[in-house]
Amino acid sequence: MYKKYIWLIILVLFGCKNNKKVAPTILEDSLNSPYKIAYAKGFTVEHFKGYKLVTIPQAWQGSKEKFTYALVKKGAKIPVLGDAVQIIRIPIKSIVCTSTSHLPLLEYLGELDKLVGFPHTKYISSPAVSTRLAKGKIKELGTESGLNIEMLMALSPEVVMDFGYGNEYDKYKSIQKVGIPVIMNADYMEETPLGRAEWIKFAGLFFGKEKEADSIFNMIKNKYNSLKKIAANSDTKPTVYSGTMYGDVWYMPGGKNSGAIFVNDAGGEYLWKEDSVTGSLQLGFESVYDHARQADFWIGMGSFNSLEEIENTDERYTSFDAFKNENVYNYNAVMGKNGGNAFLELGYLRPDYVLADMIKILHPALLPAHKLYFYKKLN
User: Fold this and answer.
1) Burial level of 260, CB count in 10 A (0-12/13-18/19+)?
2) Which pTM does this prediction carry?
3) Which alpha helices (DSSP H) does the chain contain, by range?
4) Residues 6+ apart with CB under 8 A from 218
């Protein structure tokens, strides 16, 4: 899910007349900046006179490489910051993204017209992105494992927004060698729903839309917190488990995973809430069965679309009370025509939608007018 870029872009980014470098000036008081990062832990913003410094301290689990970008307005002088800092001319006018979760950031900021290319387009669910793709305004750049480098170079994007999983990023360092900046988006490393949603502020920096991004996030945050207060009034706490078997392993969100946070914020009790893992647990079937066989709900289980499909896959699933009582919900209510999942695309930016769905499932009387958006009941 990565992209390669064009050496000619250097001329576009830097220009021939604006390559004079100046020493950095005194840091302006970042505490007085209107652009605060309250929930996200994966990036920082420092405000200097003439530029902003954006740092990703860890782009993936176990990474020791730090990514730092100096955002300099087009036409302004470039500060002297060393080879470890990537200069990005803003606002950017063309971009290639590599993950469907990046697309809503552009769409909400009103910058979708800047997207010129995307790989593995079959995973896209957004109607707006799909329409632009059908009209040829967004070029298909191959698959996650076979990016079309020649086409990418022909597109000449100013930047590529990428993400890394360990050594996979090494395959794409060659892109930077030809002069095209790679913006690493580490939103998936966030441990809270609002922390991940706040990455719209990260995207807003590159488009010169800090105020818009701040406004969008505040809207999402306020809706999420209002829903959380509503759920706090629930009289009961239905028990919930999640995940499914792959081979001999049941993959389950850890107790500090956003999946667990949604359940607890919605007035439920995630059965593994005491666990400290932010990623996924790997459990045996018997372990899950012993702990969750009497649980009230089973929410989120891969790509299953019906109870019959679940039963045909593994008859042991039918022994859980949630299955017997048909309290099984999955996050595949909205799908693209080629199989793209809206939850996996938009859900990270709109945790308020996810929380509203979760409250409706666990405590339907608390949100009588709400209709499930991402989730559907399997029957």
Assistant:
1) buried
2) 0.89
3) 9-14, 103-109, 127-134, 149-155, 173-177, 193-197, 200-207, 210-231, 258-265, 285-292, 307-313, 321-324, 342-346, 351-362
4) none
Query: What CATH number does residue 256 fall under?
Result: 3.40.50.1980
Measure the CA dihedral 353/359/361/365, to 10°.
-120
Range(s) of the domain holding residue 120: 9-220
Element (H, E) at 92: none
Can you state the percent helix, strand and coil of the chain, rounding each to 5? 35, 20, 40
Q: 254 with 201, same domain?
A: no
pLDDT tens-digit profile of 325-368?
A: 999 999 999 999 888 999 999 999 999 999 999 999 999 999 99
Cβ–Cβ under 8 Å, residues 351 and 324 = no
Shared domain check, 276 and 252: yes
Task: Choose the final residue of a domain: 172, 196, 220.
Answer: 220
Query: What's the CA gap between 68 and 84, in Å, rounded?
Result: 7
Nearest to 259 by CA among 222, 225, 218, 302: 302
